[in-house]
């Protein structure tokens, strides 16, 4: 991967997607976890780790705060290559982006892979 420097503090998956070797597979894995969160909590948003070392970034899924409280809380954090769940220590030590993408934005990114290249349709 060409990216070896930290990302912008407000970077999102949309910003790193062009640099990923298999962006579609990465998006599918992130969306699968977001759907699990959405099923149980009604909403999901994803932020990425901005201490990039190249390759697919780690990510965290946030859900609405319980009992109607304002804001969001952690659903889970995951490694970008393996998509394995982080420990609490890994989650706390990772610097996360200040911007999140919701389910609609993530689905729009994924739909971009399904459209024919060049915009022509048969």
Task: Provide the fold topology.
Blueprint: H1 13-16, H2 23-41, E1 45-48, E2 59-64, E3 72-78, H3 88-93, E4 101-102, H4 103-114
Antiparallel strand pairs: 1-2, 1-4, 2-3
Helix pairs in contact: 2-4
- State which percent range the strand residues make up: 15-25%
Q: Structural class per helix/strand content?
A: alpha+beta
Q: End-to-end span in angstroms?
A: 34 Å
Number of helices: 4
SSE string, helices as H and strands as E: HHEEEHEH
- Give the strand order of the largest sheet, numbering strands 1, 2, ... along the chain: 3-2-1-4
For the secondary structure, the number of strands is: 4
Q: Point out poorly predicted stretches.
A: none
Main sheet summary: 4 strands, antiparallel
Would you kindly provide a written description of the structure presented here, covering whatever features stand out?
The model has no long low-confidence stretch (mean pLDDT 89). The protein has a four-stranded antiparallel beta sheet with strand order 3-2-1-4. It has helices spanning 13-16, 23-41, 88-93, 103-114; strands at 45-48, 59-64, 72-78, 101-102. The protein starts with 12 loop residues before the first helix and ends in an 8-residue tail after the last helix. It has four helices and four strands, in the order ααβββαβα. It is 34% helix and 16% strand. The protein is globular. A hairpin with a 7-residue loop joins strand 2 (59-64) and strand 3 (72-78). The protein has 122 residues and is of the alpha+beta class. Helix 2 (23-41) runs antiparallel to helix 4.
């Amino acid at each position: 991967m060409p990216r070896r420097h930290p990302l912008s503090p407000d970077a999102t998956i949309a910003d790193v997607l062009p640099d990923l070797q298999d962006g579609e597979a990465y998006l599918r894995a992130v969306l699968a976890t977001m759907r699990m969160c959405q099923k149980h909590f009604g909403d999901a948003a994803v932020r990425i780790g901005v201490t990039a070392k190249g390759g697919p970034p780690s990510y965290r899924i946030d859900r609405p705060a319980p009992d109607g409280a304002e804001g969001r809380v952690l659903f889970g954090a995951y490694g970008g290559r393996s998509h394995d769940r982080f420990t609490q220590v890994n989650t706390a030590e990772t610097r996360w982006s200040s911007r999140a993408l919701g389910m609609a934005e993530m689905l729009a990114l994924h739909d971009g892979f399904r459209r024919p290249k060049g915009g022509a349709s048969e």
